[in-house]
Amino acid sequence: MFSIVRSMWITFMHMFHKRETVQYPEQKNKLTTRWRGRIVLTRDPDMGERCVGCYLCAAACPVDCISLQATEDEHGRRYPEFFRINFSRCIFCGYCEEACPTYAIQLIPDFEMAEYNRQNLVYEKKDLLIDGQGKYPGYNYYKVAGLAIGGKDKGEAQNESEPVDVKSLIP
Amino acid sequence: MDESTLNHLFIVGGVLAGLLIVAPGLIWLERRLLALWQDRYGPNRAGPFGVLIVLADTLKLFFKEDWIPPFADKAVFVMAPAIVMITVFLSFVIIPFAPGVIVANLNIGILFFLAMSSMGAYSIILGGWASNNKYALLGAMRGAAQMISYEVFMGLALMGTVLLAGSFSLVDIVEAQRGLWFVVPQFVGFVIFLIAGIAETHRLPFDIPEAESELIAGFHSEYSGMKFGMFFVGEYLGITLISSLTVCLFFGGWLGPAFLPPLVWFVLKTFAFICLFILLRASLPRPRYDQLMEFGWKILLPLTLINLMVTAGIVLMNESL
User: Fold this and answer.
1) Inter-chain Cβ pairs, chain A and chain B, closer than 8 A
2) Could B283 and A10 be called an inter-chain contact, meaning their C-beta atoms sit closer than 8 Å?
3) In the predicted model, what is the mean pLDDT of chain A?
């Protein structure tokens, strides 16, 4: 009997507590930078596309919402011909970001992507590509990779020494 | 039409209109108060303080598909929600809101109320039966058992005040409290009446016939649209009814210091009890069904009988002196 009155009193005193509600459209919660929201494709510091079309994100995606087609430009640099994410399927698991070897695909703290038309949730490459470097500023895949592309030969990458001439004995 | 008939019609219309405003208002009040006690805001978007949520709710209920399941007993299914409305509205006939503001000052006032609230049990049973659904039927069975058993000592708990006032008429009972509110000499009766009243309106924590977590929605699982709305309104009017009866029987009805008119005193006291009902819902868990019945028959019934006997003895003693 006493415990009933006590619990009623405690409930009553909750009247003077601080409200837990966040009045959403006016107030917004602060999202951390690691928050997994909308997926973007980032660019390297020279504003080139980071994505090299390796399909690892599409392979990692548990709901198969990523589809892309890789191609090469005249310098031998790979890039996606199209890159399509169906956000009506995406579960924002972030596996694509983990799989990406070039930090191209990234999840950013934005979730306000509601649409009236379901078809509008299919994002094409022009919708995904941003003019920024996302979470890894200064990273340029082709500058650190040992791959030779047009304008950069073997051994010219950062922290890379000249390739060893295996046909010569001179040190 | 002479003056008194017109006056009477005015009272009837006023009571009816007042109740029809109070019922949806309570929906808003309950949601806001529950939110308040759960550290939330509740509906606060539509209109000032979200009052218009009631309008939106009502419109929604009106325009919802009013579906009668093909397996239901149609006539009874349609009739059941009307019964709860009718009985609750009829019960308000005997409530004195202020001196002279009463629809009918029956000399058997309390008995009429008890009869009407027993009739209310029919709406639950018929609704659950007509739905032809096992959850609905389970809810209806529980509801019937609960209401019938709590009816017993609800009536018995009231007899204490009837003995003290010497009348079944609520006006006389209120007038008899001029010196001292009956909550003091009849405290046990008051507590028992309140508990039985909660069970009678099957409100939380005694919402066993509905019990969302066990029986989906109990007896009104199959109801939609305005038929469900009638159960809903009936429930809220039931809260108002029990609150105003508690005020009349134990808290001196319209009586109060003269700086406020009697009607305001009555409304204020009733409002306080409605808030108490909502607070109960916010704080207490639902007891198990057998615990509820055990509590009723093994604790409340003997307590009520003792209370009645002691009261009767004291009244007799005072008379013989």
Assistant:
1) 32
2) yes
3) 87
**Dmax (CA) of chain A:** 97
Distance CA B265, CA B272 (A): 11
Contact predicate B172/B110, CB 8 Å:
no
pTM for the model stands at 0.76
Which of A10, A12, A21 is facing B40, going by the closest CB pair?
A21
pLDDT at position A19 over 90:
no
B4 in any annotated domain: no
Say yes or no to pLDDT of B121 above 70: yes
Domain tally, chain B: 1
Token pair 């008051």 in the structure block, residue: B190
* Structural domains of chain A, count: 1
- Domain presence at residue B17: no
User: What's A53's domain CATH number?
Assistant: 3.30.70.3270
Alpha helices for chain A (secondary structure H): 2-13, 56-60, 95-99, 125-128, 141-144
A109 in helix, strand or coil? coil
Which positions 143-162 of A are in contact with B (Cβ < 8 Å)? none
Residue B2 lies in a domain: no
Peptide bond into B205 cis (omega under 30): yes
Contact B11, B17 (CB under 8 A): no
Of A7, A18, A23, which is closest to B284 when you measure between CB atoms? A7
Does pLDDT of B264 surpass 80?
A: yes
Q: pLDDT-derived band of residue B66, with 50, 70 and 90 as boundaries?
A: confident
d(CA B109, CA A43): 82
**Does residue B219 lie within any of the structural domains?**
yes
CA distance B252 to B249: 7
* Domain membership of residue A70 as a residue range: 25-141
Q: Is A167 on the interface with B (CB under 8 A)?
A: no
Give the range with max mean pLDDT: B167-171, B238-242, B254-258.
B238-242
Strands of A78-86's sheet, edge to edge? Answer: A66-72, A78-86, A122-123
Does any domain span residue A84?
yes
**Segments forming the whole domain that contains residue B159:** 67-320
The answer as to whether A158 is a domain residue is: no
Residue B1's pLDDT band (cuts 50, 70, 90) = low
Q: How far is A32 from chain B (nearest CA, A)?
A: 24
Q: Are B121 and B147 in contact (CB under 8 A)?
A: yes
Of B37, B39, B282, the CB nearest to A20: B39
ipTM of the complex: 0.70
Q: Is A27 on the interface with B (CB under 8 A)?
A: no
